[in-house]
Amino acid sequence: MRSGLAVLGVAAALLVRADCGIEAADEPQFISLFDGKSLKGWVPQHTERFSVKDGAIVNEGGTGWLRSERSYRDFEFQAEYRVIRPGSDSGIFFRASAESMEKEPHWPARCYQLQVIDAEGNCMLFGHGLAPPRFERKLDALKSASKDARQWQKIRLKVIGARAEVALNDVVVTTSDAIQAPEGHLGLQGENGHLEWRALKIRQFPAR
Length: 208
Fold this sequence. Notes:
The chain is an alpha+beta fold and 208 residues long. It has a single domain (30-204), classed as Jelly Rolls, CATH 2.60.120. It is built from 2 helices and 15 strands. The protein has helices at 2-26, 139-145, and strands at residues 31-32, 42-45, 50-53, 56-60, 65-72, 75-83, 89-96, 111-117, 125-128, 136-137, 153-160, 163-168, 171-176, 184-189, 194-204. The longest helix is centred in the first third of the chain and has 25 residues, at 2-26. The chain is globular and about 40 Å long.
């Protein structure tokens, strides 16, 4: 009887592994958006303030933005950033139009923005040319997850349909169910201060 149960246990384990393998194969894979050496795959928009140094994208203030060549619909974007100058202010644009504002600050004419700032307003969501989306921000979680300036921090933005979820250092801090624009580019915002970005990658989810 015991030997029979053992055989059944092994068979069940193999089935679980097989199932996991199928799920892993079906799961969208991340692809890199930054080669660590150049701005290949990105298009500066009304700015000369983005450059590459020591394996990171460096932004030293200014207006304009750095736009992804491709546009994305449903995706998960991950990156690491660090604030070099305390108090620096930037952001991640998503579902953004390729066109920029004619006047300064020359950001996308239409987009959502995930704010990346060395201040209490970190990880808020805004709209430019779009209605600002309603969102919930967990301030206690944000405070516990945040690191001091000059330390690398991991940020994740997952957008599927009308749902957006933001995690800072693997802690979910902001959610919204009010994202309306269906598709658009990613972008790094030029604004105030000095920030660096690295390990930019994305995975896309099939249209539903």
